[in-house]
Amino acid sequence: MKKNNSLFVLIIILCIIGIITNIFLMSSNIFNKDFRIQTEKITINDKNYSIQITQIYSSDEILNNGIDTIINNIKNSFLEEVKNDKGKLVIDYEYSKYKDIYSFHIRGIANIKDILKRKDYIIYYDEKAKKVLKQEDLIKKDYGLYTIFNSNCVDYLNDIDYDESLLEIEDKNYSLLIFSNDNIHIIIINNNEEISIPINYSYIKEYLNKKYFKVRDKIIKDTNKDVEVTPEREETIQENVDKTEELNLPKYLAFTFDDGPALDITTTLLDGLKERNAKATFFVLGNRAVNQGDIIKRMIEEGHVVGSHTYSHKNLLRLSLEEALGEINNTNDIIANITGNKPKYLRPPYGNYNKEILNNSNMTFILWSVDTEDWKKRNADLIYEYIINNVNDGDIVLLHDLYPTSVDGVLKAIDYLKGQNYRFVNIDELFNKKGAIAEVNKTYRYVK
């Protein structure tokens, strides 16, 4: 009898061990199983509306909850709008992957009384850490970043008719970002049409979280890219014969900086220029200058010239004359309120203007003869080398006071070029040194 009891106890112990082992193995499998994505087609029909949903399911419940919240927001918003009308809603998705990071793009497109409306959301997921991420976990939201996005989007959409306000340098316009293995993609919704604009990671390297992104420096060859201008543009340039080399006279350069001021970066640049007794010209944006009066005043006090780069960096060729002049005059008033004087000089965004804008501006347009493409290079040594190898007496050099690499590169170039008998002047001084007059409603690329 005792022998049978012992056997019974042994069997129970083995069963318990087996159960515990199975539980452990199941838990281990759940923990280690690969991340999976499944979809299901759901159709909801009512007498007034229909809803078609491509529902996403993953092996992570936290991600599922986040996706469900987005889908429910789209659905509930549609049901609220369709209460007294007939309509149709389609919710679908697509995703891209960069290493362990998924970008899920969920979109809802509604048709209510033949009017299309859409809502777009992106949710990010770290497969390795098994957690949902915020966009700011992956990329630093910054004015400089949006300037790069803006420039690339304008180039990409060059032949497309689009709403200019979609590319204004604001966070809301660049919130739909997809991370793929090759590029970051900016999603622009233009008249309910989705446009995906790719940008190489190397262009925005300094804004990416190094925890997730390992981006190598990309050496970009200078291609002497032409600036988009209108055929009817007029240029007035001094054509004096250059005698500086044979007479060993000083040579003059006008360094110009667009898109600022940018607080700490512009301050560092001003400190470096002051230390070197170098002068420059700053083409500022009105929507930045309006809140940075102190730094604008410092520019003037230290002998620099402040010009206008319009209020919000819009492509003037895509605006009516009235709108274009509004961009110009608004900024002129802002600068005048800070400095006491309206600016004389304008640099149109992207170098774009036409004869009508030029003749009605009552300003002198300053373009450039040397484009460093510092926004693209983002490498102080490349910027330095390009400057010292391409400048000549009387040149106007284009840079941006948005990037530390631009500041480091130009200050290093100034240190070198001093030994080559160059002097660094603001745009007023460049005209004076060359015995030229800056005429109103005229355009200059350099002053020789």
Notes on the structure:
There is one protein chain. This protein has about 450 residues and is an alpha/beta fold. The protein has three domains: about 35-135, Fervidobacterium nodosum Rt17-B1 like (Heat Shock Protein 90, 2-Layer Sandwich), CATH 3.30.565; about 135-215; about 245-445, TIM Barrel, CATH 3.20.20. The chain is built from 14 helices and 18 strands. It has helices spanning about 1-30, 60-80, 135-140, 145-155, 245, 265-275, 285-290, 295-300, 320-340, 355-360, 375, 380-390, 405-420, 425-435, and strands at about 35-45, 50-60, 85-100, 100-110, 115-125, 130-135, 175-180, 185-190, 195-200, 250-260, 280-285, 305-310, 345, 365, 370, 395-400, 420-425, 445. The chain has a six-stranded mixed sheet. Helix 6 packs parallel to helix 13 (about 405-420) and helix 9 (about 320-340) packs parallel to helix 10. It is elongated. The relative contact order is 0.10.
